[in-house]
């Protein structure tokens, strides 16, 4: 009778499963997959990912940057000197691609051309008396009137957001499965997202790889070393002149490596190219630089504006920053706006200085001739993080408050240009030294500077 009393619903309808029946297996799968997806994200490997298998990325991580707290009240009160009262090197920066984002380092090899990896490349656009399209075509004949002219943040402020990484060989990463590499590489990265569903997938992949602040990027791989003749022929590079200020500089046109997306990102309407400095055709520096007899060699530069090294004095910047009018767009002056190689503390009356030996055994006392003040253009108006250009500052205040050099009247000056001096050899190929953060600066000579125009 009990069997007969079993309800029809119990016999004819399936039992309803509880919420836990579905939730627990699903939660188990999710808990298992999340760590796996975190460690092995299902996203395509980038060029940078591949290089990390055999190389190490040059530079200081942002949390360890010597410049991270430069605008804090405590930093403003620092004198930047050691116990003996000597100025110290606060930071070192290199800019492998002119006008793109720099790399802060704790130690750098010093060469006659400046810090290693500095200003090896520059962007240039094709200029002509008649319109020139992005593919190099123009109206009418007269192609021989075209010329390449270097470009910077002055014309295209978004260059400030183009990131540059240098990867150097790491002997500790070579294994039986990975060949040892002796070549260093540069990776250029800029924000780019394809339209439609591809762009959505790129956005998701960037968030998985780099966290919530990650954004899709396009990468371009460039060699640090100057290409061989065979590589130049195979890759379709050409040797051409590029104008840097008033000089025509023989260099290597590597425009073949640039994607069209970069021109669109930078809003460059003319044809865009990337030039590699030719180490056999460096520009000799005269004007305020020491003579061959004084330095033991004729100072040379790659794609630097005028001199091998640019030094900024934090005390001078802090004093100037306190006088610059501020608004919502400009809260403080980041020293990186001025794109110097060496950042230290002291005044601008240096004529000759010596950096004493650092804590590393590879460093040694190194002398410099302080050639002249740095005459500023409007590039510091560009925010080095966002690429946004302020309408007037700090250019207006520079011209008003820093009109300090009779050789550059009504032109603001901030920072110093330097030439390294090497002892023990008169052969440029053997001239090198090492610099590092924390080295003390001994002032050997002080005096007045008068800028000599190009």
Task: Walk me through the structure.
With 454 residues, the chain is an alpha+beta fold. The protein has one domain (55-446). 18% of the residues lie in helices and 27% in strands. The chain has 10 helices and 22 strands. The protein has helices at 8-12, 19-39, 47-51, 73-76, 196-210, 229-235, 260-266, 292-295, 314-321, 395-401; strands at 55-57, 87-94, 103-105, 107-111, 114-115, 121-127, 147-150, 163-169, 185-191, 217-223, 238-244, 247-253, 272-277, 283-284, 300-301, 309-313, 342-344, 350-355, 366-375, 413-421, 433-436, 440-446. Strands 2-17-16-20-19-18-22 form a 7-stranded mixed β-barrel. A 5-stranded mixed beta barrel has the order 6-7-11-12-13.
N→C terminal distance: 113 Å
Number of helical stretches of at least 4 residues: 10
Q: Give me the side-by-side strand order of the main sheet.
A: 2-17-16-20-19-18-22
Low-confidence stretches: none
Number of domains: 1
Structural class: alpha+beta
Question: What key attributes describe this structure?
Answer:
single chain, 454 residues, alpha+beta, seven-stranded mixed β-barrel, five-stranded mixed beta barrel, 10 helices, 18% helix, 27% strand, globular, pyridoxal phosphate binding
Topology:
Blueprint lengths: L7 H5 L6 H21 L7 H5 L3 E3 L15 H4 L10 E8 L8 E3 L1 E5 L2 E2 L5 E7 L19 E4 L12 E7 L15 E7 L4 H15 L6 E7 L5 H7 L2 E7 L2 E7 L6 H7 L5 E6 L5 E2 L7 H4 L4 E2 L7 E5 H8 L20 E3 L5 E6 L10 E10 L19 H7 L11 E9 L11 E4 L3 E7 L8
Parallel strand pairs: 7-11, 16-17
Antiparallel strand pairs: 1-8, 2-3, 2-17, 2-22, 4-5, 4-21, 6-7, 6-13, 8-9, 9-10, 11-12, 12-13, 14-15, 16-20, 18-19, 18-22, 19-20
Pfam family, one: MOSC_N
Protein name: Mitochondrial amidoxime reducing component 2
InterPro entries: MoCF_Sase_C (IPR005302), MOCOS_middle (IPR005303), Pyrv_Knase-like_insert_dom_sf (IPR011037)
